[in-house]
Design brief:
The chain is of the alpha/beta class and about 250 residues long. A hairpin with an 8-residue loop joins strand 1 and strand 2. Helices cover about 45% and strands about 15% of the residues. It is built from eleven helices and six strands. The protein is globular. The mean pLDDT is about 95. It starts with a strand and ends in an 18-residue tail after the last helix. A six-stranded mixed beta sheet has the order 5-4-1-2-3-6. Helix 7 packs across helix 10.
């Protein structure tokens, strides 16, 4: 099995990709790149069994009627979201609220934060994948799943905050976090990419996205139940791992 992890940014230069190959109770990082364009993402998707992408794959269901009502001068769909609680339904998806309830982490808003720019690019990438390889379900039931590296790290009992950025403290935390990860996952061969991963939180998050994609492929993530399934099909669904890192490679023969 090959899993692809993508840490998607609005700009190509900040977009990272990591491919992990799985077999014989172990895993090896076979591809790591920064400055990844849409074409490379689509090519790597085609060559992988499952892709985990760190970016919202959809918008809140309430957002489009709100905008459409505003554009058309139709007051009611806009007034339906009067007040802070109404605006929260425009800013956060069902899966965002689910993740917060489970982990205490608050995902950035796809419609009200800077995450909107990467999400627009993600929508285009999804369209390119659909054109070339068929549409992928937004709930992660196909070959593309939305992931959230910070939530994956927390689910695995690892540091989930404070390692992003270029400051000395963040750089040190990232290096320490990579060390903790390698000790927790001795079956993972980084293939000499240790320094690259220790020097870039984008590359590190792409690796975590790829590991999470493996959990998705194994059925070891929280899936939307009946109460969340409808929204997950349109808004997207963040896959949270269940179980430890040691379950990812599977038993050795």
């Amino acid at each position: 099995m090959r899993t692809l992890g993508v840490d998607l940014a609005a700009a190509t230069k900040k977009t990272a990709a990591a491919v992990v190959e799985w077999g014989d109770g172990a895993a090896r990082l076979t591809h790591l790149s920064l400055g990844v364009d849409d074409g490379e993402i689509v090519r790597l998707f085609a060559a992988s069994d499952l892709t985990g992408i760190d970016c919202p794959v959809g918008w809140p269901d309430a957002f489009l009627p709100f905008i459409a009502g505003h554009l058309a001068g139709d007051a009611q769909p806009v007034l339906d979201h009067d007040g802070i609680e109404g605006r929260r339904l425009l800013a956060y998806r069902d899966t965002d609220r689910f993740v917060t309830a489970r982990t205490g982490l608050i995902p950035l808003s796809v419609s009200a934060d800077r995450l909107a720019h990467p999400a627009m690019r993600c929508a285009v990438i999804q369209a390119k994948i659909a054109r070339d390889h068929g549409p992928q379900a937004r709930d992660g039931s196909g070959r593309l799943a939305e992931v959230y590296p910070a939530a994956s790290l927390k689910s695995w009992g690892l540091l989930a905050r404070g390692y992003k950025g270029r400051g000395g403290a963040e750089t040190q935390r990232l290096r320490e976090l990579l060390g903790v990860l390698t000790r927790a996952a001795p079956w993972l061969d980084l293939a000499g990419h240790d320094e690259q991963l220790a020097g870039s939180d984008d590359l590190f998050d792409a690796l975590i996205a790829s590991l999470t994609a493996r959990a998705v492929a194994l059925g070891s993530t929280l899936r939307p139940d009946a109460g969340h399934a409808r929204a997950a099909r349109t808004e997207g669904w963040i896959h949270l791992p269940v179980g430890g890192l040691d379950a990812l490679p599977g038993p050795r023969p």
